[in-house]
Amino acid sequence: MTPERGAPSWGRLLLAGLAFNGWWLLLVWFRDHLAVLTLAGALLAWEALPSGLRKPALLLAAAGSALDFALAASGLLRFVGVGTLPLWMMTLWLSFACWWVWLLQAWRPSPRLLAALGTLAGPAAYYAGFQLQALQPGLPWWGLLPILAVVWGVGLPQTLRLPLQGRAAQ
User: Fold this and answer.
1) Residue 163: which region, alpha, beta or left (left: phi > 0; alpha: psi -120 to 50)?
2) What residue ranges in 30-134 does DSSP mark as E strands?
3) pLDDT reading at 168 higher than 50
4) Model confidence at 13, in pLDDT bands (50, 70, 90)?
């Protein structure tokens, strides 16, 4: 699993991953306090994407926002201090979607690897959000995390189906 020909180097991919995690922390830590500024940053990231990646990024951001809306509406998840789906979470989804489609342009992991990654990283992100008091589980966290593991373990590999135009030849 190496970056595809003409794709960014592993170092650049790693740097982009670290930058996204810093952005994630900024969004979750400051939430509504920087919502307009972070939304502007996410929209700039979307605008900077190659044109063939913009629609898939919006589709992924909409799907992720719908997932969190469904989790909140069902009572499995609660956002602290706001309604069912706050602006900062939609901004986080747009940011993730921009980073993810850009990453998939260069890196084509196997569905099994993405299932394992989703199973571990998805619930870990929500757990970190619990610890930063951005969200609360609607049931004990040890009951919610397995549900999130299944959702992310099944959902993340589905992102390989996004129609990423302009992808390097495989």
Assistant:
1) beta
2) 77-79
3) no
4) confident
